[in-house]
Amino acid sequence: MNRLCVHTITTKPLTLQQCLLEFPKRGVSGITIWRQMLEGCDLAQVKRQTLGAGLELVSLCRGGFFPAATASGRQIAIDDNLLAIEQAHAIGAPLIVLVCGAIPGQSLTESRKQIADGLAAILPVAEQAGVKLAIEPLHPMYADDRSAVNTMRQAHEICDVLGSPKLLGIAVDVYHVWWDPELKGQIDLAGRTGRLHAFHICDWKTPTIDLLNDRGLMDEGCINIRLISDWVDATGFTGHREVEIFSHRWWATDQAKFLDEISTSYAKLYDDDVKVNL
Amino acid sequence: MNRLCVHTITTKPLTLQQCLLEFPKRGVSGITIWRQMLEGCDLAQVKRQTLGAGLELVSLCRGGFFPAATASGRQIAIDDNLLAIEQAHAIGAPLIVLVCGAIPGQSLTESRKQIADGLAAILPVAEQAGVKLAIEPLHPMYADDRSAVNTMRQAHEICDVLGSPKLLGIAVDVYHVWWDPELKGQIDLAGRTGRLHAFHICDWKTPTIDLLNDRGLMDEGCINIRLISDWVDATGFTGHREVEIFSHRWWATDQAKFLDEISTSYAKLYDDDVKVNL
Prior knowledge:
The structure is a homodimer of 278-residue chains.
Chain A: E1 4-7, H1 16-25, E2 30-34, H2 43-52, E3 56-64, H3 71-91, E4 95-99, H4 108-129, E5 132-135, H5 152-161, E6 168-173, H6 174-177, H7 183-192, E7 196-201, H8 225-234, E8 241-243, H9 248-251, H10 255-269
Parallel strand pairs in A: 1-2, 1-8, 2-3, 3-4, 4-5, 5-6, 6-7, 7-8
């Protein structure tokens, strides 16, 4: 088994069934399912089908979005995260990735407090379900309305504040953190503290023409993905490298060919991950 | 005299002559001139005209862009910065704002080293000319090709490495640094070390539809500009608040009306800056 995982959002035009069929053909060994794919699905069947396709279910994307202007808004967010835990448990996903949320105009400090409160509310249920949670620090350009957690340091601080529960960790996505001068030290720390729960890859294009949906395939941009990857592995991390690409450009192309490109690009980047059979 | 300054790039469709005519009508007391406006101009005349218009010349934008793939490329950058110092001296601008530069694919650490080397090369000339320099930390979304200096902490580190020359400081632009959890502490430090050379304002819109040219007028976005402004003033800073807005949307409107909006927005934000006479 190689360590290549693809997020269903990466091949957004494909149905879950198509992902389950197409991913393994390219040597993809893991899948991260985005929640919108589960709408109206029999979750037990999703679990069976994923296993049947020979894919390891790496994580469920995404929970979070805890901050809200009102207490009732924050309760709705908590309820949605509890639902996500149920879904993850039902499909056999060991981990939920959290995009923590932010409210434009609300101070980031207050949003981070609400994020910690929201996490505290769902942690016991996650523990009971045996589902891990990963805070994904988001690039500072998403600090307005997507996440008040913009560095690994802040993610660590939230884990600390909550008493370092074992199941709470961090998802490292190179797109969000590649610029951070503290990155190596914070990855090391995540390793030492058992918090390195997930590793996402894609690339930063120059120019980037859309804040949300113009991510690049590995090697299309300026991120030294392999270097960051090596830092991650040096902590003892042996999990999947998850290809998570939001791209209007790639979504507009033939997704089978895009998957070919992903495999090729992955194999080039990780030529020592010899078990890729294309 | 109030503390309102406008950058010529903010009203990009206007000529320098139009800026000199229109800015004072709205109670603007300071001007920051962008270098492209100086092309083909008699610099001594620019100096006289600016003074004649009753405007304080706050700074010249912009120098920097020190990193390059080759030694000759870095020398061209140094030469261009030396020219900027000459220009600043000639028009009577006490300060040059530096967008420090970055090369896609070159490590940010290497780019920061090249930035420090470039600064070291121009500092003696700047000192001789009596022109101050301000490193402007740019938002991490510009780390690919605009600046490897993305936080105030990094700007301080470069000042430290160069032996803290008095004329070298930092330009704080709320757009670039508002998300930084260390912001208040780093502003305090800039105050204590005499490095707080300039303060730029605008707003972060939600959604932001263009990475470069979709900045908001104050109060159009989520930045708590007044809070950051108060932190800046608490250090003893009494300089101008410089309105620097890159916006296709605003540039497409009537610039006289836009200047009215800037004045109104400024007066609302700084209702204690009583010398605004609109």
